[in-house]
Every structure is written in C-alpha cells, then in structure tokens.
Write a structure and sequence with these properties.
The chain has a single domain, classed as P-loop containing nucleotide triphosphate hydrolases (Rossmann fold), CATH 3.40.50.300. Helix content is about 30%, strand content about 25%. It has a 6-stranded mixed sheet with strand order 2-3-1-4-5-6, with helices on both faces. A hairpin with a 2-residue loop joins strand 2 and strand 3. About 35% of the residues are buried. The structure holds guanosine-3'-monophosphate-5'-diphosphate. Guanosine-3'-monophosphate-5'-diphosphate binds next to helix 1.
C-alpha cells in the first residue's frame, strides 16, 4: 500500500522508530532535514533525543540515539516500542565499518527484534565524500546483507545511499520506511 498524499482532514498515522548507528555517522544531521524545529548547528546527541515530525502522511516519533560506545547499550530500551529502525552507516569510516557490522548484528539478534516483523532502513551516509567512501556494494558485502535477507525473513530491509550534508536520499529512504511500516500494519 502506498503512502497517501497529506490530507489536512485526516489524522496522520503514527510510527515509532529508533535511529541508531555509530557516533558521527550522521544520524542527527539526517533527522535535521525532517524536523522543522531542529537547530541548524548539530551537537553530539546526549544519550537520546526524541524527535517528532509529520512527513509523508506519517506522524513520526523517532528516538535519535547516541552512538558513542558507552551509550550503545541504551538503544535496546527503545526496541520494544519501535516498528522500524533507521541504522545509519558512515560510508567513509573504513576503520569502524566492522564495529558498525557488530552493532547491527547485535540489534538484529536482540530478543525484541529476533522474532517479530519490523522494517529496517539502512542509510549509507556521506556518499558526497566521493572516492573516500566505500561503495554500497562493498558495504553490503561487509555487513553480509545477502545472508541477512536469507536468514531473517522477519526483516523488511531497504538500503539507501544518502548524503545528509546535501540532503540527498533522505526523502526516498523515509518514504520507503513509511510504506513498509504501513504494509506491515
Ligand atoms: P551522529 O548524530 O550520528 O553522531 P552527526 O552524527 O549528525 O552529529 O554528524 C557528525 C558529523 O558528520 C558532523 O560534522 C556532520 O556535519 C557530518 N556529516 C553528517 N552527514 C554528513 C554527510 O552526508 N556528508 C558529510 N561530508 N558530512 C556529514 P562535524 O564537523 O559537525 O562533527
């Protein structure tokens, strides 16, 4: 089912989403394109910041989680309440791509997600950095996404290349997520 155009007479449906990924991946910058009232200067997220916005016929509630090492243990507090996950990867961060893989795997194997159906939007960010970035194919291989699609049929996955600095790929990604969550009720 597609996302309907916004109609002021119809209350938008609600969607709760957890946004995670390593620190510096660009989570807050991505969300700044969707929230009208976020400041233009993005500061490191202290623990978690809850964002509300209405876009693409959906009233979004997004937990923007800090990705620093110590804070990652807090992500799972929001899993039981989330119908969708936005996992942001810094495509220019070769040194930490295996760490991002480990965190993604831990999320997928977490009891709150292991068995139930959910939508996973994987944002491959900072694609504007040109030859310094890993390609989408390279990242998909490192993250073993083909294996994931076979082994975890409960995950509706979409991979979206983007540049939060340029604002590209964000609308496409979140429109897909809105559609995916709508389809799974
Ligand atoms: P986080 O919320 O995941 O921790 P932020 O990440 O949104 O705070 O972004 C971390 C840094 O990456 C910021 O730079 C931000 O401007 C930059 N960044 C985010 N998205 C992109 C992108 O698509 N391309 C490029 N080139 N940079 C990006 P600073 O310098 O403020 O730390």
């Amino acid at each position: 089912m597609g996302v309907m155009a916004s109609n002021p007479c119809v209350a938008p449906r609600q969607a709760s989403v957890v946004c995670c990924g390593l620190d510096n991946a660009g989570k807050s910058t991505i969300l700044s394109h969707l929230c009208d009232d976020l400041p233009s200067v993005i500061h490191p997220t202290p623990g978690m910041a809850l964002q509300h916005f209405i876009k693409y016929g959906v009233q979004w509630r997004v937990w923007d989680c800090s990705g620093t090492g110590a804070s990652r243990g807090m992500w799972s507090l929001f899993y039981p309440h989330a119908a969708g996950v936005v996992f942001v990867v810094d495509a220019s961060d070769r040194d930490r791509i295996s760490c991002a893989k480990d965190e993604l795997e831990a999320l997928l194997l977490h009891p709150d997600f292991r068995k139930r159906h959910f939508s996973l939007l994987l944002m491959l960010n900072k694609m504007d950095l040109g030859e310094n970035t890993m390609s989408a194919v390279e990242i998909e291989t490192i993250l073993r996404l083909k294996h994931l699609q076979v082994s975890q049929r409960n995950v509706d996955l979409h991979v979206q290349s983007c540049s939060a600095i340029k604002g590209t790929g964000i609308e496409e990604g979140f429109r897909w997520l809105a559609d995916s969550m709508s389809s799974s009720g």
